[in-house]
Amino acid sequence: MIIQLYELACENRCELAAGLLSRKAGGIVSLIGAKDTSWHKDPKLDDYDDLVVGALGDWFVALGERSSLLLVGDSCASVPLRVGGIVSRLALDDCYDPGGLERVKYFSVDEESCLIETEMGFWRFSRSDGIMWSVVHDNLTLRIKEVLQDKIVVYDEDGTHQFSVADGSQL
Hints:
The chain has strands spanning 4-8, 13-16, 19-24, 28-32, 37-41, 51-56, 59-64, 69-74, 81-86, 104-110, 113-118, 121-126, 130-136, 143-147, 151-156, 159-164. By secondary structure, the protein is mainly β. It starts with a strand and ends in a 7-residue tail after the last strand.
């Protein structure tokens, strides 16, 4: 499955299969679904940061550029927008931030799950089960290269490494 990517700036909205997703000042994210409307406030979602959205058919995951609160929108759920979990992020709040270190990327695993990559690790997320496993690291050069049927290929300054899609263990 192909993931459609969107970067949603503050005071903007986009139409997704799960509903109308909108951003307001103060970290407010709302989703108007076919059945209901729901919203969440993310205190780490700065008005100047984009909300990075990965849409997978009738559901999506969303994470702010520097936020750790993972939001999930699902047209089939009783609550259209919910918190899917917390992911690790680089914390430079009280020190010099050179900028450009933040990273949010999504990779499809199957129709019901995806990988979420940030500068501090990667997580397998399931639409129905939430965060299934995580690989958290302190290597800012580590990046996902590709996701194959049973393994994740990553690379860094030392070469390539492989992880299991099933449980996140290093192969």
